[in-house]
Amino acid sequence: MPGHLMRFGGLGRFARMSLIFFLLAAAPACADDGPPSFAPLVHKVLPGVVSIAVTEPVNTKDALDALPPALRGTPFEKQFREQLRRRPEKATDAGAGFIIDGSGVIVTNNHVVGLASDIEIVLADGTSLPAHVIGADELTDIAVLKVAPRRTLPTVAWGSSRNVEVGDWVLAAGNPFGLANSITAGIVSARGRDIETGPFDDFLQIDAPVNPGNSGGPIFNMKGEVVGINTAIVSPSGGSVGIAFAIPSDEAREIVAALLAHGHIDRGWLGVALEDLPDNGNDPGVAVAQVVREGPAAQSGVRDGDIILSVNGQPVYNTQGLIRAVAAIPPGRNARIVLFRGGKAVQISVTIGHRPPMRAE
Predict the structure, then answer these.
(1) Among 51, 93, 137, 141, the one annotated catalytic
(2) Is residue 251 within 8 Å of 269, Cβ to Cβ?
(3) 262 among known catalytic residues
(4) Is 137 a catalytic residue?
(5) Are domains 1-265 and 268-354 of this chain identical in fold?
(6) Span 1-265: which CATH code?
(7) Which residues of the chain have pLDDT under 50?
(8) Which of 9, 82, 111, 243 has the smallest number of CB atoms closer than 10 Å to its CB?
(9) Which is the catalytic residue, given 189, 215, 249, 300?
(10) Distance CA 39, CA 334 (A)
(11) Could you tell me if 239 and 22 are in contact, meaning their C-beta atoms sit under 8 angstroms apart?
Protein backbone atom coordinates (compact mmCIF):
# COMPACT_ATOMS: atom_id res chain seq x y z
CA MET A 1 0.00 0.00 0.00
CA PRO A 2 1.46 3.42 -0.90
CA GLY A 3 2.68 5.46 2.07
CA HIS A 4 -0.06 8.05 1.80
CA LEU A 5 -2.83 5.44 1.88
CA MET A 6 -4.02 3.74 5.02
CA ARG A 7 -6.61 1.41 6.36
CA PHE A 8 -8.05 3.11 9.39
CA GLY A 9 -9.31 2.01 12.78
CA GLY A 10 -9.39 3.56 16.24
CA LEU A 11 -6.97 5.00 18.77
CA GLY A 12 -5.22 1.77 19.70
CA ARG A 13 -4.43 0.67 16.16
CA PHE A 14 -3.02 4.01 15.12
CA ALA A 15 -0.85 4.26 18.23
CA ARG A 16 0.63 0.82 17.62
CA MET A 17 1.28 1.50 13.93
CA SER A 18 2.87 4.92 14.56
CA LEU A 19 0.45 6.55 12.16
CA ILE A 20 -1.01 10.04 12.47
CA PHE A 21 -4.73 10.64 12.42
CA PHE A 22 -5.93 12.73 9.52
CA LEU A 23 -9.26 14.51 9.81
CA LEU A 24 -10.77 14.66 6.37
CA ALA A 25 -12.46 17.92 5.46
CA ALA A 26 -16.11 17.98 4.53
CA ALA A 27 -17.03 19.10 1.06
CA PRO A 28 -18.84 22.42 1.29
CA ALA A 29 -22.50 22.20 0.36
CA CYS A 30 -25.23 24.77 0.17
CA ALA A 31 -28.67 23.98 1.50
CA ASP A 32 -30.14 24.40 -1.98
CA ASP A 33 -27.78 21.75 -3.41
CA GLY A 34 -29.21 18.78 -1.51
CA PRO A 35 -32.20 17.56 0.44
CA PRO A 36 -33.69 20.04 2.94
CA SER A 37 -32.72 17.57 5.66
CA PHE A 38 -31.13 14.15 5.94
CA ALA A 39 -32.94 13.56 9.23
CA PRO A 40 -35.68 11.21 7.91
CA LEU A 41 -33.06 9.03 6.25
CA VAL A 42 -30.86 9.04 9.36
CA HIS A 43 -33.78 7.94 11.54
CA LYS A 44 -34.37 5.10 9.11
CA VAL A 45 -30.83 3.71 8.89
CA LEU A 46 -29.06 4.58 12.15
CA PRO A 47 -30.65 1.78 14.25
CA GLY A 48 -28.96 -0.75 11.96
CA VAL A 49 -25.47 0.72 12.44
CA VAL A 50 -23.24 -0.53 15.26
CA SER A 51 -20.05 0.55 16.95
CA ILE A 52 -17.32 -2.03 17.44
CA ALA A 53 -14.76 -2.09 20.24
CA VAL A 54 -11.95 -4.64 20.11
CA THR A 55 -9.04 -5.49 22.37
CA GLU A 56 -5.74 -6.83 21.13
CA PRO A 57 -2.59 -8.04 22.88
CA VAL A 58 0.02 -5.29 22.93
CA ASN A 59 3.38 -4.38 24.41
CA THR A 60 2.64 -1.42 26.71
CA LYS A 61 6.00 0.32 26.23
CA ASP A 62 5.85 0.00 22.45
CA ALA A 63 2.29 1.33 22.42
CA LEU A 64 3.19 4.40 24.46
CA ASP A 65 6.32 5.07 22.41
CA ALA A 66 4.25 4.84 19.23
CA LEU A 67 1.61 7.32 20.37
CA PRO A 68 1.16 9.71 17.43
CA PRO A 69 2.42 13.26 18.03
CA ALA A 70 -1.00 14.60 17.01
CA LEU A 71 -2.51 12.96 20.11
CA ARG A 72 0.06 14.07 22.65
CA GLY A 73 -1.32 16.59 25.09
CA THR A 74 -4.92 15.86 24.10
CA PRO A 75 -7.70 14.10 26.04
CA PHE A 76 -7.15 11.10 23.74
CA GLU A 77 -3.63 10.63 25.13
CA LYS A 78 -4.97 10.61 28.68
CA GLN A 79 -7.70 8.16 27.74
CA PHE A 80 -5.25 5.86 25.97
CA ARG A 81 -2.79 5.84 28.89
CA GLU A 82 -5.61 5.13 31.33
CA GLN A 83 -6.75 2.18 29.25
CA LEU A 84 -3.24 0.76 29.23
CA ARG A 85 -2.95 1.27 32.99
CA ARG A 86 -6.17 -0.65 33.66
CA ARG A 87 -5.43 -3.40 31.14
CA PRO A 88 -1.70 -3.26 30.43
CA GLU A 89 -1.72 -6.45 28.37
CA LYS A 90 -4.28 -5.12 25.88
CA ALA A 91 -5.06 -2.07 23.78
CA THR A 92 -8.45 -0.87 22.65
CA ASP A 93 -9.38 -0.16 19.07
CA ALA A 94 -12.62 0.94 17.47
CA GLY A 95 -14.57 0.56 14.27
CA ALA A 96 -18.10 0.30 12.95
CA GLY A 97 -20.39 -2.14 11.20
CA PHE A 98 -23.97 -2.73 10.15
CA ILE A 99 -26.60 -5.37 10.81
CA ILE A 100 -27.80 -7.39 7.80
CA ASP A 101 -29.82 -10.03 9.69
CA GLY A 102 -32.03 -9.49 12.72
CA SER A 103 -30.64 -12.62 14.37
CA GLY A 104 -27.39 -10.71 14.91
CA VAL A 105 -25.28 -10.92 11.74
CA ILE A 106 -23.00 -7.91 11.32
CA VAL A 107 -20.66 -6.82 8.52
CA THR A 108 -17.44 -4.86 9.10
CA ASN A 109 -13.82 -4.62 7.89
CA ASN A 110 -11.41 -7.48 8.44
CA HIS A 111 -8.74 -5.04 9.62
CA VAL A 112 -11.03 -3.91 12.44
CA VAL A 113 -11.34 -7.38 13.99
CA GLY A 114 -8.52 -9.38 12.40
CA LEU A 115 -6.20 -9.37 15.45
CA ALA A 116 -8.85 -9.02 18.14
CA SER A 117 -8.89 -11.20 21.22
CA ASP A 118 -12.23 -9.74 22.32
CA ILE A 119 -14.95 -8.02 20.29
CA GLU A 120 -17.80 -5.97 21.71
CA ILE A 121 -20.69 -4.62 19.66
CA VAL A 122 -22.57 -1.52 20.82
CA LEU A 123 -26.02 -1.10 19.30
CA ALA A 124 -27.57 2.27 18.50
CA ASP A 125 -29.60 2.09 21.74
CA GLY A 126 -26.44 1.61 23.80
CA THR A 127 -26.79 -2.14 24.35
CA SER A 128 -23.42 -3.95 24.43
CA LEU A 129 -23.05 -7.52 23.20
CA PRO A 130 -20.03 -9.79 22.81
CA ALA A 131 -19.36 -10.91 19.25
CA HIS A 132 -17.35 -13.53 17.44
CA VAL A 133 -16.08 -13.76 13.86
CA ILE A 134 -18.04 -16.06 11.55
CA GLY A 135 -15.65 -15.53 8.67
CA ALA A 136 -13.19 -13.02 7.26
CA ASP A 137 -11.46 -12.27 3.98
CA GLU A 138 -8.17 -10.39 4.15
CA LEU A 139 -7.96 -9.64 0.43
CA THR A 140 -11.22 -7.71 0.27
CA ASP A 141 -11.02 -6.52 3.91
CA ILE A 142 -14.45 -7.89 4.84
CA ALA A 143 -15.46 -9.72 8.01
CA VAL A 144 -18.78 -11.08 9.25
CA LEU A 145 -19.58 -11.12 12.98
CA LYS A 146 -22.32 -12.73 15.07
CA VAL A 147 -23.94 -11.63 18.30
CA ALA A 148 -26.68 -13.34 20.31
CA PRO A 149 -29.36 -10.68 20.97
CA ARG A 150 -32.41 -11.22 23.15
CA ARG A 151 -34.61 -9.64 20.50
CA THR A 152 -34.68 -9.26 16.75
CA LEU A 153 -32.34 -6.45 15.77
CA PRO A 154 -33.07 -3.66 13.26
CA THR A 155 -31.34 -4.21 9.93
CA VAL A 156 -30.23 -2.25 6.90
CA ALA A 157 -30.69 -3.39 3.32
CA TRP A 158 -28.11 -3.90 0.59
CA GLY A 159 -28.29 -1.64 -2.43
CA SER A 160 -26.52 -2.01 -5.77
CA SER A 161 -23.27 -0.12 -6.18
CA ARG A 162 -23.66 -0.72 -9.91
CA ASN A 163 -26.36 1.95 -9.91
CA VAL A 164 -24.22 4.53 -8.08
CA GLU A 165 -23.11 7.46 -10.20
CA VAL A 166 -20.40 10.02 -9.65
CA GLY A 167 -22.06 13.03 -8.03
CA ASP A 168 -24.67 11.04 -6.10
CA TRP A 169 -25.33 12.07 -2.52
CA VAL A 170 -24.32 9.50 0.11
CA LEU A 171 -24.27 9.23 3.91
CA ALA A 172 -21.35 7.71 5.80
CA ALA A 173 -22.13 6.17 9.18
CA GLY A 174 -19.80 4.96 11.89
CA ASN A 175 -17.91 5.40 15.11
CA PRO A 176 -15.25 8.10 14.44
CA PHE A 177 -12.78 8.46 17.32
CA GLY A 178 -15.17 6.42 19.47
CA LEU A 179 -17.97 8.97 18.98
CA ALA A 180 -20.68 6.42 18.23
CA ASN A 181 -23.76 6.95 16.05
CA SER A 182 -22.18 9.56 13.79
CA ILE A 183 -23.48 10.42 10.32
CA THR A 184 -21.78 12.58 7.69
CA ALA A 185 -22.86 13.51 4.18
CA GLY A 186 -21.02 13.91 0.89
CA ILE A 187 -20.93 12.67 -2.67
CA VAL A 188 -19.43 9.86 -4.70
CA SER A 189 -16.48 11.53 -6.42
CA ALA A 190 -15.15 8.59 -8.48
CA ARG A 191 -15.65 4.90 -9.24
CA GLY A 192 -13.32 2.00 -9.91
CA ARG A 193 -10.37 3.34 -7.90
CA ASP A 194 -7.29 1.11 -7.65
CA ILE A 195 -5.32 2.26 -4.59
CA GLU A 196 -2.80 -0.60 -4.80
CA THR A 197 -3.88 -2.43 -1.68
CA GLY A 198 -4.40 -5.67 -3.60
CA PRO A 199 -5.50 -7.29 -6.86
CA PHE A 200 -9.20 -6.82 -6.11
CA ASP A 201 -9.19 -3.04 -5.70
CA ASP A 202 -12.27 -1.46 -7.28
CA PHE A 203 -13.29 1.19 -4.77
CA LEU A 204 -15.87 3.93 -4.70
CA GLN A 205 -14.17 7.23 -3.91
CA ILE A 206 -16.20 9.20 -1.36
CA ASP A 207 -15.99 12.92 -0.70
CA ALA A 208 -17.42 12.98 2.84
CA PRO A 209 -15.92 13.35 6.32
CA VAL A 210 -14.62 9.85 7.14
CA ASN A 211 -12.28 9.41 10.09
CA PRO A 212 -10.49 6.71 12.11
CA GLY A 213 -13.23 4.64 13.72
CA ASN A 214 -15.43 4.73 10.61
CA SER A 215 -13.80 1.54 9.32
CA GLY A 216 -16.43 -1.06 8.47
CA GLY A 217 -19.26 1.45 8.61
CA PRO A 218 -21.78 1.64 5.77
CA ILE A 219 -22.16 4.13 2.95
CA PHE A 220 -25.86 4.74 2.27
CA ASN A 221 -27.57 6.02 -0.85
CA MET A 222 -30.57 8.29 -0.55
CA LYS A 223 -32.91 5.27 -0.35
CA GLY A 224 -31.17 4.15 2.83
CA GLU A 225 -29.49 1.19 1.10
CA VAL A 226 -25.88 0.15 1.73
CA VAL A 227 -23.86 0.82 -1.43
CA GLY A 228 -20.39 0.67 0.11
CA ILE A 229 -18.28 -0.14 3.17
CA ASN A 230 -15.74 2.39 4.50
CA THR A 231 -12.25 0.90 4.31
CA ALA A 232 -9.45 3.45 3.69
CA ILE A 233 -8.50 7.11 3.61
CA VAL A 234 -5.74 9.01 1.80
CA SER A 235 -3.62 12.03 2.72
CA PRO A 236 -0.62 12.41 0.39
CA SER A 237 0.47 15.80 1.76
CA GLY A 238 0.18 14.99 5.45
CA GLY A 239 -2.89 17.23 5.70
CA SER A 240 -6.59 16.73 5.14
CA VAL A 241 -7.69 16.26 1.54
CA GLY A 242 -11.16 14.83 2.09
CA ILE A 243 -10.84 11.53 0.22
CA ALA A 244 -12.07 8.16 1.43
CA PHE A 245 -12.62 4.80 -0.23
CA ALA A 246 -15.42 2.28 0.11
CA ILE A 247 -15.79 -1.35 -0.96
CA PRO A 248 -18.67 -1.49 -3.48
CA SER A 249 -21.74 -3.29 -2.16
CA ASP A 250 -22.04 -5.59 -5.18
CA GLU A 251 -18.60 -7.02 -4.41
CA ALA A 252 -19.13 -7.02 -0.64
CA ARG A 253 -22.48 -8.77 -0.81
CA GLU A 254 -21.01 -11.77 -2.67
CA ILE A 255 -18.11 -12.03 -0.22
CA VAL A 256 -20.44 -11.81 2.77
CA ALA A 257 -22.66 -14.58 1.35
CA ALA A 258 -19.63 -16.84 0.86
CA LEU A 259 -18.34 -16.12 4.37
CA LEU A 260 -21.74 -16.94 5.86
CA ALA A 261 -21.82 -20.21 3.94
CA HIS A 262 -18.23 -21.36 4.37
CA GLY A 263 -16.42 -19.07 6.82
CA HIS A 264 -13.70 -18.37 4.26
CA ILE A 265 -13.17 -17.61 0.57
CA ASP A 266 -11.65 -20.23 -1.74
CA ARG A 267 -9.92 -18.59 -4.69
CA GLY A 268 -8.09 -20.09 -7.61
CA TRP A 269 -4.33 -19.75 -8.05
CA LEU A 270 -2.18 -20.22 -11.13
CA GLY A 271 1.28 -19.99 -9.55
CA VAL A 272 3.00 -17.37 -11.70
CA ALA A 273 4.52 -13.92 -11.32
CA LEU A 274 3.01 -11.57 -13.91
CA GLU A 275 3.90 -8.40 -15.78
CA ASP A 276 1.78 -6.11 -17.91
CA LEU A 277 2.92 -5.79 -21.49
CA PRO A 278 4.20 -2.32 -22.47
CA ASP A 279 2.22 -0.52 -25.17
CA ASN A 280 -0.17 -3.44 -25.54
CA GLY A 281 -2.94 -1.23 -26.90
CA ASN A 282 -6.26 -3.03 -27.11
CA ASP A 283 -4.74 -6.47 -27.62
CA PRO A 284 -5.01 -9.11 -24.88
CA GLY A 285 -1.90 -10.47 -23.23
CA VAL A 286 -0.13 -10.69 -19.88
CA ALA A 287 3.51 -11.75 -19.58
CA VAL A 288 4.63 -14.61 -17.33
CA ALA A 289 7.71 -13.26 -15.57
CA GLN A 290 8.31 -16.33 -13.44
CA VAL A 291 6.65 -19.69 -12.85
CA VAL A 292 6.39 -20.83 -9.24
CA ARG A 293 8.19 -24.12 -8.84
CA GLU A 294 5.78 -27.06 -8.49
CA GLY A 295 2.81 -24.70 -8.74
CA PRO A 296 -0.26 -25.38 -10.93
CA ALA A 297 1.17 -23.55 -13.95
CA ALA A 298 4.56 -25.29 -13.71
CA GLN A 299 2.90 -28.70 -13.54
CA SER A 300 0.94 -27.91 -16.71
CA GLY A 301 3.90 -26.72 -18.75
CA VAL A 302 3.63 -22.94 -18.51
CA ARG A 303 7.05 -21.34 -19.02
CA ASP A 304 8.76 -18.09 -18.17
CA GLY A 305 8.21 -15.65 -21.02
CA ASP A 306 4.86 -17.06 -22.12
CA ILE A 307 2.14 -14.52 -22.89
CA ILE A 308 -1.25 -15.51 -21.48
CA LEU A 309 -4.00 -14.41 -23.85
CA SER A 310 -7.17 -15.87 -22.32
CA VAL A 311 -8.59 -17.98 -19.50
CA ASN A 312 -11.57 -20.19 -20.32
CA GLY A 313 -12.18 -18.14 -23.45
CA GLN A 314 -12.07 -14.83 -21.57
CA PRO A 315 -9.38 -12.45 -22.94
CA VAL A 316 -7.09 -10.93 -20.32
CA TYR A 317 -5.56 -7.48 -20.82
CA ASN A 318 -3.63 -6.84 -17.60
CA THR A 319 -2.35 -8.55 -14.48
CA GLN A 320 -5.34 -7.54 -12.38
CA GLY A 321 -7.78 -8.95 -14.93
CA LEU A 322 -5.87 -12.23 -15.12
CA ILE A 323 -5.68 -12.57 -11.35
CA ARG A 324 -9.42 -11.94 -11.04
CA ALA A 325 -10.24 -14.44 -13.79
CA VAL A 326 -8.18 -17.19 -12.15
CA ALA A 327 -9.38 -16.34 -8.63
CA ALA A 328 -12.98 -16.85 -9.75
CA ILE A 329 -12.27 -20.49 -10.72
CA PRO A 330 -12.80 -22.96 -7.84
CA PRO A 331 -9.58 -24.72 -6.81
CA GLY A 332 -9.34 -28.19 -8.33
CA ARG A 333 -11.13 -27.24 -11.54
CA ASN A 334 -9.42 -27.36 -14.92
CA ALA A 335 -9.00 -24.13 -16.86
CA ARG A 336 -8.25 -23.62 -20.55
CA ILE A 337 -5.29 -21.26 -20.87
CA VAL A 338 -4.33 -19.86 -24.28
CA LEU A 339 -0.68 -18.80 -24.49
CA PHE A 340 1.41 -17.06 -27.10
CA ARG A 341 4.71 -18.91 -27.38
CA GLY A 342 7.24 -19.22 -30.19
CA GLY A 343 5.20 -17.08 -32.55
CA LYS A 344 1.95 -19.03 -32.23
CA ALA A 345 -1.00 -19.57 -29.88
CA VAL A 346 -0.89 -22.68 -27.70
CA GLN A 347 -3.78 -24.00 -25.59
CA ILE A 348 -3.08 -25.93 -22.40
CA SER A 349 -5.17 -27.22 -19.52
CA VAL A 350 -4.24 -26.19 -15.99
CA THR A 351 -5.66 -27.64 -12.78
CA ILE A 352 -6.23 -24.51 -10.71
CA GLY A 353 -4.66 -24.51 -7.25
CA HIS A 354 -5.80 -23.00 -3.96
CA ARG A 355 -4.69 -19.40 -3.59
CA PRO A 356 -2.39 -18.95 -0.56
CA PRO A 357 -3.12 -15.99 1.73
CA MET A 358 -2.24 -12.58 0.25
CA ARG A 359 -0.67 -13.96 -2.91
CA ALA A 360 -0.68 -11.62 -5.89
CA GLU A 361 -0.55 -14.12 -8.76
Answers:
(1) 141
(2) no
(3) no
(4) no
(5) no
(6) 2.40.10.120
(7) 10-31, 70, 237-240, 359-361
(8) 82
(9) 215
(10) 53
(11) yes
Q: Say which of 51, 93, 111, 300 is annotated catalytic.
A: 111
> Where are the domains positioned within the chain?
1-265, 268-354
pLDDT of residue 131: 96
**pLDDT, the chain, mean:** 82
In terms of CATH architecture, what is 268-354? Roll (2.30)
Torsion 285-307-198-147 (CA) sign: positive
> Which pLDDT score, from 0 to 100, does residue 1 have?
54
CA distances from 347 to 49, 265, 309, 325 (A): 50, 29, 10, 16
Can you give the pTM of this predicted structure? Answer: 0.73
